[in-house]
């Protein structure tokens, strides 16, 4: 760490102490005055001097400098207008410490970014964007199966590193989703019902907290175990900037993948069949089932196909037996069922990672979403107000029971342990759509989500967040809210890690 940085961290600590003595909180998220150019200069210099063990310097990128637009662009283009003051590409812990100290000292808001896929734009900011992407190294210990991954890695980096090892950590579907956001919010994938969520495989994490300390948190009492508990489902951006994660990997074997699409008939019966199979065999099969229109334009029941995509932990003939009910009910239009190596299966199942414009809501279902709920869903799909894109993700059921339910609701911060499916509802649009069209879609999504509450649990997946979600704190964290707020007080008493849906401090100290 450069002497400049050390001095600045020290100054920042002094400022914090003074603030605390006066009984005030450092208003880190409040922009009090125009940025001091020399403040940014100092940070840029510090970052240049902070190198990782390979000698790579960190870098501060300012508007109009090469790479700024690419580094600033979030996955959901809906938030692309939120332009950061500067972007700190951090190659190591010390750079992260320098950024936190700088933001506190300069009283600037900041946001943390890994893969940039937060649906609600919580990794965008008008202040300092702290980007951990350059920290993406992966070290696999073949003997113990423990894998340490830099907090900037994404699903694709994991797949590339694991492919030859015979091991895997259950992760997500989209290649460019970052492991930081994925893990901190839970981490669903096509292995979740058999092996658990990504956060369930976590054994340790390193993180820089608001006081500038780099901590190694584990489940062991006295080793920042509260921070470790919160890192398993407590949501990104709330307590610290994580710089690495250590997971227990599991062995992988050949699997069968499937992609089955039925013609637009008997949708409710097919969706019920698929749910029953999933509920009966969560350790064998992991499905993502949905109803979706074949084309852009008005959505009608007569154009809604049922599709299930997923992974089966057994040979193809056994899967065909398991799916005999829905395959016999209606002859599918597409029926791809293929046995293959685990990593080839992962490549088959990845999503195309659109850089789009979209809004989303999520819920959970315990047991199955029954006939009446599915009928209501179809009714809302038919009421979609229109737009330029085919709506591919209007109503999806992600299998989230099995091994996910084997963990208690309070054992980790991920509280949704009594559910069997995550329900996702989405609206998406393109630059062709006018503000009126976009607003109509968003109104539709809000009304659709509200009307489905009769059939779902009042819970939402923090990794499928929405700024318009009522009661978001309870919906994301349920009975774990009080503990998360206490942990917030313990690690971030000045509420430095703050965004529209960050964990608040306990009521008494607000
Ligand atoms: C196309 C697409 C496909 C998806 N597929 C899946 C899926 O299959 N399974 C699933 O579970 N989810 C999926 N998601 C949701 C995804 O898990 C969440 O959006 C996740 O939080 C994204 O993580 P990120 O690092 O890419 O995003 P970011 O936007 O960078 O981060 C997400 C949140 O975590 C914070 N954060 C980021 N890095 C850190 C850090 N190092 N320390 C502390 N806080 C940090 C950010 O500030 C932000 O609040 C998908 C999302 C998209 C857009």
UniProtKB/TrEMBL annotation:
Pfam (any one): FAD_binding_4
UniProt GO molecular function: FAD binding; oxidoreductase activity
Domain FAD-binding PCMH-type: 80-252
Record-linked Gene3D superfamilies: 3.30.465.10, 3.40.462.20
This protein's UniProt keywords: FAD, Flavoprotein, Oxidoreductase, Signal
Signal sequence, start to end: 1-17
Cofactor(s) in the UniProt record: FAD
PANTHER family on file: BINDING OXIDOREDUCTASE, PUTATIVE (AFU_ORTHOLOGUE AFUA_1G17690)-RELATED, FAD-BINDING PCMH-TYPE DOMAIN-CONTAINING PROTEIN
Name the record gives this protein: Oxidoreductase
